[in-house]
Specification:
Elements: H1 4-15, E1 23-27, E2 37-38, E3 41-42, E4 53-57, H2 59-69, E5 83-86, E6 98-100, E7 111-113, H3 120-127, H4 132-147, E8 152-156, H5 160-172, H6 180-187, H7 194-207, H8 217-229, H9 234-238, H10 242-266, H11 281-288, H12 300-315, H13 323-339, H14 366-376, H15 391-397, E9 403-405, H16 409-414, H17 419-422, E10 428-430, H18 433-439, H19 444-448, H20 453-462, H21 474-493
Parallel strand pairs: 1-8
Antiparallel strand pairs: 1-4, 2-3, 5-6, 5-7, 9-10
């Protein structure tokens, strides 16, 4: 589900008659056991003979438009925010005229509710007290949406291989695959339900603090395909048979739990949401997949090689593109290592392909999560007080209260640096909330002086900060700290 601001931007594109992309539909006589939910709304059952098309590409756009304009259903949660047209905003090709506003933010004399455009009674009521000039503007708004045609193509086939090819080509264009419901409805027999099996797995996965994995259905299918076939392409996934899943599910289950145990124990990855590239779970799960009741026990040599592969995959952003091919390659390599601990495994190059000086920090981005795990690898203490950081709590919540700027934003603003320049990876460290409150907008040379002499070097080193930070201006600090960060990355990849 898109964020409300993204929905508002989509409406602005329609209003300005910009292209929003083609929706691809699949027409089939096969009725699938899919969830009857669109965004935050539960849909009623369609009439028995009502034609049904399944969305192959464009579900986010359709969900957004449905959520804005439908008026009969109540949302299942209070997360939905209505979209409004700013009646007095200056027409601008770049800036959006549509806003996502909480009810408390709405000015009825300025913000027009977009959800009335297709409801004549509500539209008349909403325009009743407005000036004629504004009403003409809103009539134009209404006509643009009523006359707008969403480009769409209908793909008709009962051949699952053709459907798989369509999915793959959509995936190549950067659209996330989600064939889980298609496959589970298509292939599993009455005595085996893949969806239910993974739901039963949820309790075990949740114990590892990886419960969010349950929601990643595409990844679950890739793990199944990887364990059974060694490949994760849509064709391989769509060709899976229920019997294959039944015979291998125990193996798949142990593979997933073994991979999660390894990440938690050896890489200190505490939670699924902090895994920068979840796609690496596929080859790792294949490595741990086993028929043994006790799971697969790895050796110290295998551990060291897998950790090198893990860190190199992060710093090279290996699973940010070409995922099918790279998963196939790494599955093959890890299986050879599994069979022979002395195997000279082909690893990604020991390169750092993240610009720590310029890449913006966000705990939700892949680069931000790489940075968090990198800092996490030093078992850091809070920079000012030396208080132990509760990493489990930090990584679980992705709490912004524990990530702070070494050169405070307000301090940098006084020097003429904007927020974009301040909020970069190289300027981030772990700080407790109390330490951050003590620092506020102080310059580093001010607050570093308050760290006791006997522990100052230790605290700075654990935060991957230069010892002479008090002597550096901001650009020089970014340069030096980026070098320290990259040295630490090289150590982890070595």
């Amino acid at each position: 589900m898109w964020e409300p601001e993204q929905v508002a931007f989509l409406l602005d594109s329609i209003y300005k008659e910009f292209p929003i992309g083609t929706v691809i539909l699949w027409k089939t006589d096969t009725r699938l056991s899919t969830e009857k939910r669109l965004g935050l709304f539960d849909l009623p059952e369609p009439h028995k003979d009502y034609p049904v098309n399944y969305v192959l590409d464009g579900q986010q756009r359709l969900t957004a438009l449905f959520s804005v304009f439908q008026t009969e259903l109540d949302p299942i949660s209070d997360e939905w925010v209505d979209i409004y047209f700013d009646m007095y905003a200056e027409e601008n090709m770049q800036e959006s005229l549509f806003l996502a506003l909480d009810k408390s933010e709405v000015d009825p004399l300025r913000h027009f509710p977009v959800n009335t455009l297709f409801d004549p009674v509500s539209y008349r009521a909403a325009t009743n007290k407005l000036d004629d000039e504004i009403i003409l503007k809103l009539d134009n708004l209404q006509s643009r949406f009523k006359e707008y045609l969403i480009p769409n193509e209908v793909f008709e086939s009962e051949d699952r291989n053709k459907v798989a090819i369509v999915f793959e080509r959509i995936n190549r264009a950067g659209t996330e695959l989600d064939v889980f419901e298609l496959l589970s409805a298509w292939s599993w027999s009455d005595d085996f339900d893949l969806v239910e099996k993974f739901r039963m797995l949820q309790e075990s996965i949740a114990e590892h603090n990886f419960a969010d994995l349950i929601d990643d259905k595409d990844l679950q299918l890739r793990i199944c395909a990887g364990v059974i076939s060694g490949e994760t392409t849509p064709q391989v996934i769509m060709a899976l048979q229920g019997e294959e899943i039944r015979l291998n599910f125990s193996k798949i289950e142990k593979g997933i739990l073994g991979a999660l145990d390894f990440l938690k124990r050896e890489a200190n990855v505490k939670h699924y949401k902090m895994l920068p590239f979840p796609g690496l779970l596929v080859p790792l799960s294949v490595f741990f997949a086993t028929d043994s009741e006790d799971g697969f026990r790895y050796t110290s040599k295998q551990r060291d090689k897998i950790l090198r592969w893990f860190w190199r995959s992060l710093f090279t952003r290996r699973f940010s593109a070409g995922v099918n091919r790279r998963q196939r390659e790494d599955i093959a390599e890890l299986l050879k290592l599994k069979n022979n601990e002395d195997y000279d495994m082909k690893l990604p190059e020991a390169d750092v392909r993240i610009d720590f000086k310029q890449s913006p920090f966000s705990s939700g981005s892949a680069n931000g999560r790489v940075m968090i795990l990198l800092l996490n690898s030093t078992m850091p203490h809070s920079l000012l007080s030396g208080a132990k950081i509760d990493l489990d709590n930090v990584l679980k919540k992705g709490s912004k209260h524990e990530y702070h700027h070494i050169f405070p934003q307000k301090y940098l603003e006084r020097l003429g640096f904007d927020r974009k320049q301040a909020n970069v990876l190289a300027n981030i460290c772990f700080l407790t909330r109390s330490d951050n409150n003590n620092i506020k907008d102080k310059a580093p040379y001010e607050y570093v002086a308050s760290i006791p002499d006997e522990v100052r070097v230790e605290y700075l080193a654990s935060a991957l900060c230069p010892e002479n930070i008090a002597e550096l201006d901001y650009p020089e600090f970014l340069k030096v700290r980026s070098e320290i960060i990259e040295r630490r990355a090289k150590e982890l990849m070595a």
